[in-house]
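ok so I'm stuck.
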Amino acid sequence: MMRDVMTGSAVFMVQVLGQPSLRDVHGALRPLERKAAALLAYLAIEGHTPRGRLTSLLWPETREDAARNNLVHLLRKLASLAGVPLVEGRETLALHPEVRVDVQSLFLAGEAASGVPLPVARASLLATHDFDDCPELEEWLCAERERLEEWWLLILRERATLLEAQEAHEAALGVVLRLLDLDPLSEDAHRRLMRLHTRMGNRHRALRAYERLCALLRREFGAEPLPETVTLAQSLYRPLTLASASSSLISA
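replied:
not stuck anymore, here's the structure
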């Protein structure tokens, strides 16, 4: 548990990216069991949800009355773990306003101008759990993991663009390297890398980045870079050619 610096109210931190866990009222990190983690992740992403929808996702093969009873017990276990109820509502459930879930912070980080820091590392939604026994929930989870992956790439691209526009080249370079780690075949990311190296006075590094891209594309696809990438590379080679020619004239 933390306290909101603006209001002084308690804030309960829930992690559903990677290993699901909860920071309790004493500040201890508690692991979340599979269906508790799924419930909190679903409410964090989807918002207010009818009880019937949640029971059909979490206990698809169970009679409705028994499934609703299971949900009541699950909510009580969560409240006991946290020290206070984390979920509120009667027939429609939602997270308590003082609950903060890491996946929500990821969406906020997508607003590049918001000042929200990028997460330290990318982690998959409910990474340590699977839900083969809950087919509809598993389908939702797979779709959300894919959507979050795309969102994460978008966040990195937008943050790199913002930092480059602010001429914060070193910070932008760090973001671009993270982007390439996730999507090594992205020519856009390679062009960003080339531009940043050039603006930081490392033209030779920019050219090596281009040569690595060429080798990668030939190995993976038997293809050459896009025309805009080639044009950028040619603009980098040209000053080196002129410098070499000038040196030759001076030597002569």
